[in-house]
């Protein structure tokens, strides 16, 4: 598998970030938001499946976005930034380990620095794949990466806490198994220090919007190496747009965003 020398350097830079200490993976939903985040000092960009799905008027996490659509969104984001880009690849766009392998192969071929595969079924009901099947899916991804002999950061996501917050022990065991299978980063856990010690891999933590008590220094002390903003930035933007639209359409008030920088100015400064 061949990639340009510049893109190979970007991919290696993403891998190095996980060894240098904690960093924030800023999630973009399109090319314009990626360029804005680079201007604001982001060191790496993640995509957001929710931002993409909502932009297409579809439901996130319910199998309504196709692999080709997600990869095209990632391609546009890559073209807009010089930063490493890691894609939210949902559940690999299919239940079979071969589906996951095909997704990772396509992601690597286009020069993505990394990607995440989750153990959620994508049925929209919060269900996850049985343990052994989920592990086989990660094994299939790792085999593709090792066979390609090209750098790629694979993030293995365990979604069990989303459906059942009491499921910490089972999720920890699953993440540890993903790490043993060869995943580079593990994600989605709340009892952070315990899990970091159990999995022996860089830990990525999703920090949702509206969590002001979460501090980067505390996460770093708990052995976290990557903080993902997930859909947070997109959600904040959508909420602000909804409030502004309600004022304009229902109340005839047009004073929204008075102190905000304009889009045109943002793009000029990028």
TrEMBL record:
Q: Which CDD domains match?
A: ICL_PEPM
What SUPFAM superfamilies does the database record attribute to this sequence? Phosphoenolpyruvate/pyruvate domain
Query: Do the record's keywords include Lyase?
Result: yes
GO function terms (MF aspect): lyase activity
UniProt-listed Gene3D superfamilies:
Phosphoenolpyruvate-binding domains (3.20.20.60)
| Superkingdom of the source species | Bacteria
Which controlled-vocabulary keywords does the entry list? Lyase, Pyruvate
Query: Is Repeat a UniProt keyword of this protein?
Result: no
InterPro entries, per database record? ICL/PEPM, Pyrv/PenolPyrv_kinase-like_dom, Pyrv_kinase-like_dom_sf
Q: What is this protein called?
A: Isocitrate lyase/phosphoenolpyruvate mutase family protein
Q: Which organism is it from?
A: Arsenicitalea aurantiaca
